[in-house]
Specification:
Structural class: mainly alpha
Strand content: under 5%
Distance between the termini: 65 Å
Number of strands: 0
Largest sheet: none
Radius of gyration: 18 Å
Shape: elongated
């Protein structure tokens, strides 16, 4: 009986993550993060790529951070190569929340110079947090190629990233 009930609960949660109502999706993401289960990891990552509501995306990210890192990293790293800008951006954001510095090398020059400003901005923030020790000057060099890019918000994001690199940015 318990197996059937668990299967029913899982199916219900998976449906709730796809519901038309943002409030239902938000509650489902909260529930999945509160009681992490590996069966949800792929669906959470998939949902991050298409979720239109910021608060729901943020809760999906939180739910992913509640799962074991070895289960979440492969899917997140895969999303960095997605054709969808939101998938790349949200995967970067989630990696920044996980904070595993071993994933720093996955933030490539391609992501740092992404044609989509939101992806690039997220890559800058995440790269600064996850840059491997000693690689700060190389990161600063790549970020410097982005000077003058985009509007005010993009330029502010780049400035913040360079400031966060500190001394490495002035070399």
């Amino acid at each position: 009986m318990a197996i059937t009930r668990q299967g029913t609960d899982t199916a219900r949660m998976l449906r709730a993550l796809e519901d038309d109502r943002p409030s239902v999706r938000l509650r489902a993401a909260l529930a999945v993060g509160t009681a992490p289960d590996p069966c949800f990891v792929d669906r959470l990552i998939e949902r991050c790529a298409i979720e239109p509501e910021f608060l729901v995306r943020d809760m999906l990210t939180w739910a992913l951070t509640r799962h074991p890192v070895p289960l979440t990293l492969p899917g997140l790293l895969r999303e960095l190569r997605s054709e969808r800008a939101q998938a790349r951006s949200q995967a970067l954001h989630t990696l920044s929340k996980i904070g595993d510095r071993q994933t720093g090398p996955a933030i490539t020059r391609t992501l740092l110079c992404d044609a989509d400003d939101e992806v690039a901005r997220t890559a800058w923030r995440t790269a600064v947090l996850l840059v491997p020790e000693g690689e700060e000057p190389a990161l600063a060099t790549v970020l410097a190629t982005q000077l003058g890019r985009g509007g005010r918000e993009t330029q502010l994001s780049l400035s913040r990233a360079l400031v966060a690199l500190g001394e490495a940015a002035s070399r």
